[in-house]
Amino acid sequence: MTDSTKPELVHDKLVFDWNEFGRKGRIIPPGITFFDETLRDGLQNPSVDDPSIDKKLELLHLMAKIGIHAADIGLPCSSQRAFDDVLRMCQEIKDNNLPLGVACAGRTVVGDITPMIEISQKAGMPVEVYTFIGSSPIRQFAEGWDLDVILKHSAEAIDVAVKAGLEVAYVTEDTTRARPESLASLFKMAIDHGVSRLCVCDTVGHATPDGVRNLIGFTKSIIVGSGAKVGIDWHGHNDRGLALENALWALEYGADRVHGCALGIGERVGNAQMELILLNLKLLGLLEDQDLSAMLDYCNTAAEAVGWTIPINYPLVGRDAFRTATGVHAAAIIKAQKKGDAWLADRVYSGVPAGMFGREQEICIGYMSGASNVKYWLAQRGIEVTDDLVAAILGAAKQGKHILSEEEVMTIVNGS
Fold first, then answer.
1. What's the pTM?
2. Are 349 and 217 found together in one domain?
3. 52 with 275: CB under 8 angstroms?
4. 188: CATH
5. CA dihedral 61, 67, 69, 75 (to 10 degrees)
6. What is the pLDDT of residues 278-337, one digit of tens each?
7. Is residue 317 a part of any domain in this protein?
8. d(CA 24, CA 30)
9. pLDDT tens string 8-34
10. What are phi and psi of 87, to 5 degrees?
11. Which candidate, 268, 280, 218, places its Cα nearest to that of 240?
């Protein structure tokens, strides 16, 4: 059959997408932004290293490359090294004209805010202030606070930053376990004192999607009632394994900025995974113009910087994310490739197209493989395919308990 008579593959006819069935309009409104916490909350994970300044700078460039809008780059009040690193990162962003906003975190303590003001002045660029305090009754009881104390400290910290001309995001820690009357008082105070954003926090990973809906809706009602133009952040942790799901729901329910960390690192079991937020929004068709081909570099650089081992089965960047040794799976991919359609080959056995994110499908040889795996593996490396060689390799694979390594296969090839 010639190319002119070959039936054209109509891609949208090859997959019935139940995700889109009955969908009413756009799931998430336009104008959302992504806030990267890798260099702040991510570094609060007890098992990671504080990266060198060179690695931090490299990560900033990769954040900008994949379309992150702003990043929390640390707590400059915590040490001289933290202050120096934050200042250096601000200078890097300014000197390279990176399209990346910068933010710093601090308690609702004036002494935590003044280093951010100093850095902003020295770097000659705005620094967004994320000032936080616990808001739930359990935190209040443990700390010995009452609502009046929280209101007083919060107002003082916000006023210092606003007077210095910096934008402020008011962060109510443990928002998802706080009482509505307390939140109403805190949110109204923050708006009255000039904050530009309210950050709703699932600090201990308590929320379910129902909780996200209720809390975002409540926060929106306070803002509407105030008449002010104030954005809503969602910051979620993964203690119930719901951080990614909750982040996506938060955007649908009305948050316009969502937080995440590379690989989901962060306190305890971590935060929402930034790369998976982006991946899912891309596959939903909501980031059509956003190039995510550098996400692999972003994740690998973050892992190297903090001394993190990426699980082999981790979506997108794990070693096995696009790797198969199962005969029927490999055969389907090979048949798709023979049709000369990369789109087809990248999706026939993968819900995530590897090529969209800088990876490719990989076919290996193991105890569940068939002859097609071996033939493909050999052909990819320019090795002559013979029946005897295929039988020898497949026989070794069937007798083993693991995927054959490159070295193991080549030993058979060289000995044949």
1. 0.91
2. no
3. no
4. 3.20.20.70
5. -40
6. 999 999 889 988 999 999 999 999 999 999 999 999 999 999 999 888 888 888 888 888
7. no
8. 15
9. 556 767 878 777 777 666 678 889 999
10. -60, -45
11. 268
